[in-house]
Amino acid sequence: MFDTKLKEACGICGIYAPGVDVARLTFFALYALQHRGQESAGICTSERGLAHLHKGLGLVSQVFNEDNLHLLRGDLAIGHTRYSTTGSVKLLNAQPYLIETALGPLAIAHNGNLTNTPALRRDLLQRGVGLTSSSDSEVITQMLAGAAGDTWDARIADFMQRAQGAYSLTILTRDAVYAVRDRWGFRPLCLGKLNGSGWVFASESCAFGPIGAELVRELKPGEIVRLDANGVTSWQTPAAKHAALCIFEYVYFARPDSILEGRSVHNVRRKMGRQLAREHPAEADIVIGVPDSATAHAIGYAYESGIPYGEALIKNRYIGRTFIQPDQRMRDLGVAIKFNPLTDLEGERVVLVDDSIVRGTTSGPIINLLRQAGAKEVHMRIASPPIRYPCFMGVDMARQEQLIAAQMSVEEIAAHIGVDSLGYLSVEGLRSVVPFDGTQHCQACFTGDYPVVVDDSFGKAMFE
User: Fold this and answer.
1) Which domains does the chain have, with CATH numbers?
2) What confidence tens digit (pLDDT) does each residue in 241-269 have?
């Protein structure tokens, strides 16, 4: 594993479209959400009460082909692309989860982390419910199957009274697709209208364009939405006093062509870069971004500073996830497998913009690549505040002792990674770009102020 930056949250989707090849639509929606997880992918469909499931380890394009898509028949579907936050990289942990219940088939696709998973898991085991995986998503599936109520509407509402933490869900039943967002709204989830009579849910609006859908709106924290033969039905469960969408969706997770809270993610990132330039100017000849996640930030920095924007790092966009593991010599090359520098930096003073530094293990090798290409000076600028605290709401970050900003000062980090200067966007600067506007955001990785109480045993289990 060469990239030790923040790991993506999962991507989920759901479709109700009678008379349409929903499995194929789900495939392309997941393809657009691939940036949110590369470990496994899965699709479950429902055909007159009979569920069909296919899932596997790897990228969406590695898991699915014409033969297995053809078997996924029906008018309803949910899909999932996974990066693990709880649960290891095993097929057992791949989603969607599918079980048979007294109300018919139930399939779940989950993005997030329940912070009270240990207590919920113990309760299930004590009631005699067997669990086959280490994922909190299976806990959610079994909780829904055993929840109080004679309908899925009632059971979902009952589940939400007990669940704590981050969960955006798509749920497949015999004749409906549901979408559920936790009462804090940690992870994004939106509703789209397909051409014709269909509807679609997705983690991000970027999934709608490739399948001919249009964004209708984002789900509210605590909202449940059902798609079935009656169209769209929604109702609200109690929401938290303050919503807490993860602010790192704007910094890194979301695709730049997505819309969050009515804002263009690309435009927000450009504004972050502009604010970064105001807070940490530099005398330099060129501004470059670490591709692809920091490109928009770097463009904003260049615009505000008046320093020309350019390319100096070429990314191999076909690296992705692979089952072919590098040997030790290639591991030693590290980041050079992923990035290659242009050779025309001789004597240049470079501003290198990145979206974040987590452990600090990839920044140093990138700096070395630029110096080998002839850069005279390298001034690093980070378009987010220092990450000093772990995430328990659906992001595979690191233990606190592994976070470089929790162990070193900014000056010490600069010396450690070998830059001439280092500057981070301030929390206040980030808030000025992404204001409250009546909605707060989770920024616990910067401040340590968690919106929910975290079970101590959950925090330990996350990093075992």
Assistant:
1) 11-241 (3.60.20.10), 262-439 (3.40.50.2020)
2) 889 999 999 999 999 999 999 999 999 99
